[in-house]
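Subgroup meeting minutes
Present: P.N., E.W., G.H.
Scribe: E.W.

1. P.N. recapped why we're keeping a running log of single-chain structure predictions: easier to compare across weeks, and new members can see raw inputs and outputs side by side.
2. G.H. added today's entry (91 aa).
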Amino acid sequence: MSVRSVPVPVDDEADELRRVIGANVRLARRGAGMSQEDLIEAVDGLFVRQQLSTWENGHKQPRETTLARIGSVTGRSLAWFYDSHDDAPGG
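Output recorded in log:
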């Protein structure tokens, strides 16, 4: 089963939100000691590597249900993905 990314309107706030979420997806994954492939396997193939890379690079953002699933396997709450963190790029 594949999950499509949610297109986000292009403006400064949306750009920043995508960057924050993407940085946090990467931070959560790395903090859990997972490669991209490990994360994909942990969520039972809910998405593919190209989608994950697109999210982590801030080009698109995943749906909240997908973020919640990523959070469940990395030990992060859904709300955590929406906040800037000191150890995240630009945070």
